[in-house]
Structures
1.
Amino acid sequence: MKNVPVLIVGAGPIGLALAGDLGEHGVSSLLIERTDGAITQAKMDMVGIRTMEYCRRWGIVPWVHAAGYNRDYPQDCAWVTSLTGHELGREPFAPVRDEARPPQSPEKRERCPQNFFDPVLRRFAERSGHAELRYRTQLISLEEREGAVLARVANVDTGEEETIECRYLVGTDGGASTVRKSVGIPMIGPDALTYTTNVIFRCDGLEALHDKKPAYRYIFIGKQGTWATLVAINGRDQWRFSLIGDASKRQYTEPELREAIVQAVGIPFDFEILSVLPWVRRQLVAERYSTRRVFIAGDAAHLTSPTGGFGMNTGIQDAVNLSWKLAATLQGWGGEHLLATYDHEQRPIGVRNVTESTGNLKRMLAPRVKEPPAELFDDSEAGDRARKAFGDAYTDAMKREWFSIGIHLGYVYEGSPIVVPDGTSCPEDTVSTYTQTARPGSRAPHAWLGEGQSTLDLFGKTFVLLRFGAQAPSGQGLIEAAGRAGVPLTMHLIENDEAARLYETALVLVRPDGQVCWRGNVEPAEASEIIDVVRGAHAAVGGEREAA
Ligand SMILES: Cc1cc2nc3c(=O)[nH]c(=O)nc-3n(C[C@H](O)[C@H](O)[C@H](O)COP(=O)(O)OP(=O)(O)OC[C@H]3O[C@@H](n4cnc5c(N)ncnc54)[C@H](O)[C@@H]3O)c2cc1C
């Protein structure tokens, strides 16, 4: 029987990122995927700023840039009655290549649809030398035992079955997760939000068919309200049309879809349909993210409306949060409660992010609730006035979706049992703004340390103790305590005023995932206690979770 430390089920972006990050920690994994990995319908296309910070850590940012999206394509979002009709408003954005980095990060978000991003992550996972990738292999069932998990897998082509034993199994197998169902974890949330149909079509020179400035996304507003969107999916000749639909299930024929696309453009034109994907928009979060040895991450754990682009990006955070905890446990320096903190830390972030996405959906669909004024569609001065009033209000309301740095970077592991609080109160959870803080539980702040070197470049593989200035306490107690517990810890002396200002205290301890877990101004008397807390040796996360 094949025996592996970690079996990952599902090689979408989350499974691939997890395999790669485990590899960075020197942990071997087997990643199985039932398809051949080819993506015919890119779902996700916005790689968020935190995910790009992880890509920087992994040294793969140039691969993302070169993955295939046309980084010179304008990224405006515009709302129109049709492409040949009236424009109601627009949020201008520079092409990805020209977009400025925000001051809080050494990176910026990227446009890299899944058909380009998955191969980048696959290359990353393979580069690690620790991940075995097996495509056309499907999980059939699993059995969790006291010391191991037994997984029954099948070769999709031959039907040949095999049992694989692993210490831990992670289900990154998407919304219909076999892993989640096998361990009996229910999803919690409302019924389907919409039954939507996506069509990827090819059309060379769509821009020349109309008079609107190019945009990455058009939102179509008709007499019935918001009814469709169109996205420049490769910034060249491919477009993704979404017929948004509503909560009632509906299947469309190809002629119906063609008619809808022509209606959105406003004139008949030639195009080739490449693929059609009916999908259900949901707001669901798993009741738990783990049992004792089985974990779920990504869409297996949370399903969200894509409005905002949080789905995959939240899932990549799951992978990074779980990865070092699995590594620590397998390598023997993680405490017995460490793995249970994955659910405790990541699940609230899942709830927060799917809730925000549904809010974005409601704002986008608001013209359905309060129908647009009839004059909006008239070629008259009254129509111009109506369009200005409607467009300005819609543009204003939609800003929250377009500017969401707070969601991507401002998540906090508040109340985590492996974070030592410093007594300060939690900053307000904002969406469109983000103030960096080194308060324990937060993402460790970015500051430039020198030409092209960010504080973030110090994090990833070990715990990191930052000492701000030669006058700072030596941190020797923490270094020795970590050594006694076998916890990998690296110390960096930082002599940089901006970094010292952002981090606020003389000593700051950062976890391998880049989150602050302790800070202080004096040599801690209870260094061993701190190390035991942050490695999950100290306290149970909660009776119920532990018993699971
Ligand atoms: C229209 C749309 C636009 C979106 N845009 C964005 C965006 O801009 N940004 C963003 O962050 N998110 C976006 N999302 C969400 C994003 O696509 C998902 O969150 C993301 O794909 C989830 O990745 P995953 O790896 O968890 O799951 P998936 O991508 O679903 O991958 C799961 C994998 O598991 C495999 N699998 C399933 N069952 C088994 C089994 N039994 N054995 C073996 N393999 C199995 C599947 O074949 C699949 O390859 C969007 C979603 C949609 C629908």
Note: The CA atoms of residues 373 and 386 lie 7 Å apart.
2.
Amino acid sequence: MSVKNVKAYGTEASDAVLEQLDITRREVTSKDIEIDILYCGVCHSDLHFARNDWGFSVYPVVPGHEIVGKVIKVGEGITKFNVGELVAVGCLVDSCRECNNCKNDLEQYCPEFVGTYGGQDKHLNMQTFGGYSESIVVDEDFVLKIPKNLDLAGIAPILCAGITTWSPLRHWNVKKGSKVAVIGLGGLGHMAIKLANALGADVTLFSRSPNKMQDALDLGANQVVISTDEMQMENAQGLFDLIIDTVPYSHDLNPYVGTLNTNGTLVLVGYLGPLDPMLNSVPMILGRKTVAGSLIGGIAETQELLDFCGKHDIISDIEIINIQDINEAYERMLKSDVHYRFVIDMGSLKD
Ligand SMILES: [Zn+2]
Ligand SMILES: [Zn+2]
């Protein structure tokens, strides 16, 4: 298979900074689309993967799975996309296409899904490289159309932060009048508030600090509950149909389970790992409450979200950076010092 070298930004080791390097991309096959990358969002997973926090990174690592760009080449078999069109790519670039999950538009749960970075490229038989690069080649089935009315850079985080919160909102059937709470106001949390609000839900932010109150209201929350205030937590008992928990580290879920209504669900989208302290089943059993998890969304659902965002004029609140500032951005992200997502202007890699 013919390949070409592409400029990228990545790291050769878990303890090394990100810097410019060359990677290999395949030439387009009949089903592929080559995309000139204009913007790429910066996700917490990028940092975890670059630093091998999950223990399965293969180096070099080139992160980035919130990609917006322009089609510069299409394979012979492509009919859905044209050169010059603006498109997006999210967290997935391939899957088996045959399992029940794939047949039900749940490619994110396919046992053989191929991540946009750190996955196994079936064509080149090596790891996939993400969006911190000049260009990417992707199977057309994993390329998304973007609404024409939205700011391109602000679209990028919809591809991961957005779909990660949209998928549970849809799965648990949030609609006008639903009572939704969001734990944590970061990249995921701010999208959860915007999307739940646009679906017509009554939205509450759980926050540890009163400082975030005005920001949450501006994003579309109806109220804020300070989770460290016992009286406020007491008043919130039994209120919520769905709680989206975006906190990326282990924390005590038990106080939040109590705020679920009968049949309510708390869904984890930010933290991977064992829960500490353990869950107490009593409030779950006394009210048929569920604690669940959810991972990004399928391709059809991601397209549905992009169309919804176009209709409701929703983009992410972002801070644009140059690729040369990525290491500093990681440090700031660790301190939650970003409102609410960094997006890389990939033009800075080409200069
Ligand atoms: Zn992500
Ligand atoms: Zn599959």
Note: DSSP finds twelve helices and 19 strands in the chain.
